[in-house]
Structures are given as C-alpha cells and as structure tokens.
Amino acid sequence: MPKTPRPNILFIESDQHNPAVIGAYRDEVIRTPNLDALASRGIVFENSYCGSPICVPSRTSMLTGQHPYQNEVWTNSQYLHSGIPTFAHALGVAGYKPVQIGRMHFNGPDQLHGFTERFIGDHNPNHLGADEVDHGSLHGTAGPARISLELSGHGLNSYQVHDETVAARTIEFLNDHAANDTNEPFALAIGLMLPHQPFVATKGDYEEYRGKVPPPKNPMAFEDETHPYIKWWKSHAGLEDVTPEEVERTRTAYYGLVTRLDSLLGDIFDSLEKHDLLENTLIIYTSDHGEQIGEKGLWWKQTFYEDSVKVPAIISWPARIPKGGVIGRVTSQLDLNATMLDAACAPGLPSSSGRSLLPLIEDPESGEWQDIAFSEYCTEPGDKAHSEGDKIWQNRMVREGDWKLIYYHGADTNGENMPSQLFNLADDPEEINDLINDPAHAERAEHLTNLVLEDWDPEWVESKIREQSSNLEITIPWAKNTKPADTVRWNLNPDWDYLNTPQE
Predict the structure, then answer these.
(1) pLDDT tens digits, 319-330
(2) What is the reported pLDDT for 212?
(3) pLDDT tens column, 484-494
C-alpha cells in the first residue's frame, strides 16, 4: 500500500446493530444508503465478532484490545481499571488528541479512559446506584424483557434524540476542525444508541417498512428448543409465547431505527465531504453486538448465535485502501483497535489480542492470517435481568474457520452438566444442525474445546466475578447515599419516550 500522511481517525460504534440489517450485507429490504456508500468507498468484513454479546464487556474489549478475561470486565456492572491503556491512550502517544462524543458505557469516576475530552456522555449515571434512567411510559423496555416486545411500534425513542444530539455535536466538531485550518489530524470516537431497544421508531420510519419486513427465517417455537441454557434464557426472559403481531411490529420498528441511524451517519459523512476530509480519514463503523430480532425465538443479545455475536465492520480510507472490497475471513472486533493504531503509526497496546487488518486488506487470501475469533458472556450473582439467584453463567465461544463451538460451563438450573454446541457455518449458516453429539465430529469438538480452555479458566473467572460483586455491595449503596456528581451525563427526558396510540 502507498505511503500517506497520518489519517484522521473516525471510529463510530452503534448499539445492537445486527449486520444482516444493512444493504451492504445483502439485506434487500433495509434502506441504508449512507452505510452502503461507506462500504463502497472501503471494505466490508463479513465475519467480525464482538468480544462479548453484551454492552460494557464488548466496549471495553474494543477499547483495550483485550478479551474480558484479560481486562476483567464481564458484565454491565463492572469497572474498567483506569490503569489499563486503551486505543485513546495510544493515539495520544502518537500525537493525536482523542475526543469522545456520545455513548461509551463507562462505569465509575473515570469517564475518559484516555480521551482528552468528552462532549456528550451516556444517558445512564456515571456511578452505579445513582439516579436511575427514567424512560417514562416506556419504562422497562430498554432491557432484555418481554415488555420491550409488547410496547413496540411507532412513537418516539429517547435514544434517537441522544443520537441526533451526538450527530449535531460531531458536525460542530468537524466544522471547528476545518475552521482551525490545521494540518494536525483529528481522532474522534462517536458512540450512538440506535438501534437499541426500546423498539419504537418514528411513525414515518415505521411506515416505511410496514408490511415489508420478512418474518424471522427460523422463529423456533419455545417447545422446540432443546439446549438447556437457551431454553432457560427464553423462559427467564418471557419468550415462551411471543405473538406473531409482536414479532412483526418489533421487527418493523427495528428496521425503522436502523434507517434513522443511517440518516444521522449520512449527516456526518456529508460534513466530512463538505470539508474535503473523506479522502484521508480512516472511518470505522461497527456496533457493540448484534440483535437477534426473533431468530430462533430470541431477542436482544446474550447468546453466541450469529445474529447476537456478529457485528458490522466497515472500514473506509480512500487515500490508502481499495474501494468496494468484501472480506469473508474470520476477524475479531479487537482487530479494529489494532487497525486504528497501525494506521495512525501509534504504539500497539502491550496486552492487546487484536491484529491489524491492513495487511489482510492488502492480501485477503493471506496464509498468515489465522481465521479465529473468541467471545465471552458471563453473568454475576443477583443480576435478576440476566441470571437467577446466586447463579453465575460462564459461556465462551470460538470460531475457527467454518466451525463454531459454544462452551457452557457448569450445570443448568436442574443440576445437569450443559453440553456445548457445534456448528459448521459453511454448511449450516442458520445454526440449525448442532453437531456436538455426532461421532464424526468428535475430534473437531475436542480441538475447539481445548482452544476455548487454553487460556480461559472458568473457575478463576467465577472467583473474580464474585469478588467484584462483593465490591458492588459497598459502591452501590455509597452512590445511593452520597449522590456523587455525574461528570459526564446526557440528561434523558422521560417525555421523549412514548408509544403512539393507536398504532394503526
């Protein structure tokens, strides 16, 4: 690849965007012209996996280039240690002044983690136990709960208001950068909330897809579920009897939210073009995890099925990388971290598991690239939304080549050891045929299990999670009693969350 000046860095991370719902990933119904244009200017990675199919662990993995067992962030309640360097720290070493606008889902007093400025924060409190988020008439719909399907349709979602604010502030930043007429490149990370539930789109966005969104390819009735963990999760989340009307309404709203997200991205890309910044700006678009949108009778994330654990990964840098490419090699979201640092001539993070994608872009058939990715999902005791009583679930996935193994540690709620799942994604992309009990694939299953457990000790993971959970018994009541100030918080107005009545 030719040598170019150090690029501007624009890292964009949405929330809960299933890559299958993007035109550039071959969805023929969704309208995402701006993401499609970004893809046409760059490279689409078709098999990129997040570090964890839940918000905070995924984001901290992306930031640090470390798997959850390395940075010790497994749940949405845990803090990233401020001494762990992030890509923002490394960019600062390289001479950039990294700026964050919008969502990043940091817990605790450190709301920067290497960023020099943060203009708009998250909607949630900085300190666990502080004033909770009020979603008004859509209360309860932002979490993994059946009510998010019941109260779906058209109205207003406050996360859209957040993202409109983030987009406007981003454009202001770009205007200021252009006005300063500096030769110094910028480094900007943008965090967006869409298309995360509440599954409520504006009426216009909803109506664009009414009657057009296909049903799930494999809806799977509750009684047909065989894996004990997945069956438990469906029951725990109230997914036994989701109605066809709820499925259609929720999927329609989700498509509308994706198109709204795309429109806001278009405003940002237009600003880059206006200021002649597109050519030498490395743009990375991804999401923290996917959304299952009814596939296999599942919603939200929390599993290692493709719709939950796979993320969009689109990279554009017209000054250096080719246009219109599609790469099907197996990659990790941690690789996006390493790619940014490589492009910026920044030092690599000392304990990063990420690999720069630039050599792979140069030679997509490279025999040097290892087609492998890992993801973890663990819960904590007392987490009513994701677990049961004192139980901790410790699950890990590996994809190697065409094969995926999902490892479930320990026993189910009935005391029975849970089996792993094994899929050949080349032959079975919908993950219908579990091959774990097929003697013909026993050797493959053993090999992948060994990969999962090679550097991951579930007993140690459990001990660390329980230790951190004990710490929360002090820090959460402290926040409730002392009311610490939020250094960075976007104030959500409960009036911005509502469902139109009627829905016709």
Answers:
(1) 999 999 999 999
(2) 98
(3) 999 999 999 99
The upper half-sphere exposure of residue 434, i.e. CA atoms within 13 Å in the direction of its Cβ, equals: 12
User: For the segment 228-278, what is each residue's pLDDT rounded down to a tens digit?
Assistant: 999 999 999 999 999 999 999 999 999 999 999 999 999 999 999 999 999
Long-range residue pairs from 473-481, CB within 8 A, at least 24 positions apart, any chain: 475/127, 475/128, 475/129, 476/128, 476/129, 477/129, 478/129, 479/125, 479/127, 479/128, 479/129, 479/130, 480/129, 480/130
Cα-flanking dihedrals φ and ψ of residue 328, to 5°?
Answer: -100, 5
Long-range contacts of 406-415 (CB under 8 A, 24+ apart): 406/304, 407/449, 407/452, 407/453, 408/229, 409/458, 410/458, 412/228, 412/229, 412/232, 413/228, 413/232, 413/388, 414/228
Encoding tokens for residue 338? Answer: 């390493």
Question: Is pLDDT of 372 > 70?
Answer: yes
Amino acid occupying residue 83: G
Quick one: how far is CA 6 from the chain centroid? Answer: 27
Determine the Cα–Cα distance for residues 201 and 178; give it in Å rounded to an integer: 34
Task: Supply the DSSP string of 296-362, one letter for each residue.
Answer: GG--SS-S-SHHHHEE-EEEE-TTTS-SSEEEEEEEETHHHHHHHHHHTTPPPPTT-----SHHHHH
The rounded distance, in Å, linking the Cα atoms of 388 and 384 is 6
The rounded percent of the chain whose pLDDT value lies above 90 is 93
Specify the DSSP element, H or E, that contains 253: helix 244-274
Crossing angle between the packed helical segments 244-274 and 33-40, to the nearest 10 degrees = 50
- What mean pLDDT is predicted for residues 149-168? 97
Cα–Cα distance between 255 and 276 in angstroms, integer?
A: 31
Q: What is the pLDDT of residue 3?
A: 55
Give the separation between CA 355 and CA 238, rounded to whole angstroms: 39
Amino acid residing at 82: S
pLDDT digits (tens, 9 = 90+) for 443-464: 999 999 999 999 999 999 999 9
The predicted pLDDT at position 353 comes to: 97
Torsion from C-alpha of 65, 66, 68, 71, nearest 10 degrees: -110
CATH ID of 8-499, from 3.30.479.20, 3.40.720.10, 3.90.226.10, 3.40.50.300 = 3.40.720.10
Sign of the torsion formed by the C-alpha atoms of 290, 291, 295 and 296: positive
Contacts of 346 by beta carbon, 8 Å cutoff, 6+ apart: 87, 90, 91, 93, 94, 96, 340
Whole-model pTM? 0.97
Tell me 183's DSSP state: S
Q: Name the residue among 205, 267, 202 with its Cα closest to residue 496.
A: 202
Q: What is the pLDDT of residue 388?
A: 85
Q: Is 198 exposed, middle or buried (0-12, 13-18, 19+ CB in 10 A)?
A: buried
117: three-class secondary structure by DSSP: strand
User: In this structure, what token pair is assigned to residue 155?
Assistant: 């109205």
